[in-house]
Each structure stands twice: as C-alpha cells, then as structure tokens.
C-alpha cells in the first residue's frame, strides 16, 4: 500500500477512540474555521483527498497528537515561531524551516513551494520534470506576477555523459535524456499556449555541466522560500531535503543557495536559452 497522510490520521484518530464524525466536527479548515463533512474525512483517510495546506496539517497533528515527524514536518512552526519546543532553534539563524531525508511528500514539498510563490520563481533539476507533468496551470498563474526561470539539463549533453548521473538507478541512466526531452516538449507547448504578454516571462535554459542541486524557489524581494536537495553521490531514498525561508541573518542559507542557481544561469559557456 502506498503511504499517504490519511493512514497516519486514521491511526491516531483510532488511538483516541474518536469517530470520523467527531473528527469532522473539529477538523481545522484552511480559512481558519472548523468543521468539514464526514465524507471529506473519509476521503482523506483513504488517500482520495490530499491536505495541501501545511498549517492545516500542523493543526490536525496537534488535534490528534500526531508527532510532526510522522508527516515529514519539523518541530519548528513557521506559522507560529514562538511555539517551537527549541529542538531545532539553532537552525533558525540559517533560515531552515524543514529538514528531512524522507522521500514521503517529496514532490509535494516542491509543488507546495511553487503554490505559495509570489514574485520571481526559479526551478532546476528533476523537480522540473515532475512539475511539467501536471502543473501547467500553476506555472501560468505564477507568470501573472513574476518571471519564471527554468533550468534543466541539456539532453544532448547528458545523452553523451549519462554515466555521471549517480542519483538514479544505473539501468535508467542511459534513457534519462528521454525524460528531459519530454519535459522540454511540454514546456514548449506551455509557451505556445501563453498570452503574448506573458511569453517573455517564461525563461528556459539548458545547462551542460554537473549541477547537483534539485531546487524550486521564489523571491519577491521581501519574502522567499527554497526547497532543495544536493544530489551528489547520495541515493534519493537517503537524500536530505531542505526547506529554507528568506530571513535577515548573516548566517542565512537562502541567498547562498539561490546564487548557486543563477551562477549556472548567467554562465553563457555552459547554459543556453531554448
């Protein structure tokens, strides 16, 4: 059975001897209210509906006494920083709001960052492949408020150098360039579907080098967030995934990680527009 949040929610609801009806009455909504239908709770527990609002998920964990680590969240609550129990207080100087090596909700983390995005967005690595599978409407929406910088491996280059791809199974490396070509095809379709005024905001480049960062982020000047992984020699199932927020601190990682992206983007010897 494939894991989803609903399995954990049902497990802890039953530990409290709470019925679905009782949980439905207390269920925290994203609009700040309380109460949903029993059918909604049932759909969540069966994995037919997914909780996409992190604050709602935190409130459910508090309601059902679910340890945050069970759903891939940290004890530091970015919505209520003063409530942190101090276990990762030291991370706050670096702007780390989540750190996990669990593959659970990996794509959710990237997509949630994009859904929250305000201002310019920047995306690189295999997260780009996942995003282009079903996120065209989200990308179109983000183009209304800022530029979208998409950085993806050059498929011709990686077809010749597939042996260096250490972050996927050996059997899949030789065909990896096909996935990239498919992503580029979908991005070109997206570009053709855009109103003329938005076309210039969609900026796509390929790069021909080793860039070990899978990254999705945004920055509007005042606020920003980045979800990223470093892929060097680390299998996906053990790879740490960071979520950073933009904060005013000399120790903050946000600007450092963002600069990695644009160092490749601005290097004309290894990147080119498509």
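Sequence proposed for the structure above (274 residues):
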């Amino acid at each position: 059975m494939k894991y989803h949040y609903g399995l954990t929610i049902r497990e802890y609801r039953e530990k409290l001897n709470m019925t679905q009806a009782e949980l439905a009455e207390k269920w925290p909504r994203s609009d700040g209210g309380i109460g949903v239908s029993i059918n909604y709770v049932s759909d969540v527990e069966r994995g037919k509906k997914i909780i996409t609002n992190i604050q709602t998920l935190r409130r459910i964990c508090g309601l059902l006494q679910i340890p945050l680590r069970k759903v891939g969240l940290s004890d530091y609550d970015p919505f209520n920083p003063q409530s942190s129990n101090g276990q990762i207080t030291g991370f706050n100087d670096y702007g780390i709001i989540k750190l996990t090596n669990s593959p659970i909700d990996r794509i959710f983390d990237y997509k949630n960052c994009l859904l929250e995005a305000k201002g310019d967005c920047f995306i690189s690595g295999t997260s780009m492949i996942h995003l282009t599978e079903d996120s065209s409407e989200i990308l179109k929406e983000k183009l209304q408020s800022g530029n979208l910088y998409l950085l993806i491996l050059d498929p011709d280059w990686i077809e010749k150098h597939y042996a260096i791809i250490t972050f996927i199974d050996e059997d899949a490396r030789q065909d990896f360039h096909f996935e990239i070509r498919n992503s580029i095809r979908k991005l070109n379709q997206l570009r053709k579907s855009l109103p003329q005024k938005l076309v210039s905001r969609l900026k796509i480049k390929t790069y021909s080098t080793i860039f070990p960062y899978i990254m999705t982020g945004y920055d509007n000047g005042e606020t920003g967030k980045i979800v990223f992984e470093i892929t060097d020699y680390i299998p996906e199932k053990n790879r740490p995934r960071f979520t950073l927020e933009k904060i005013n601190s000399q120790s903050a990682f946000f600007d450092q990680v963002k600069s990695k992206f644009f160092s490749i983007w601005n290097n004309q010897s290894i990147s080119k527009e498509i």
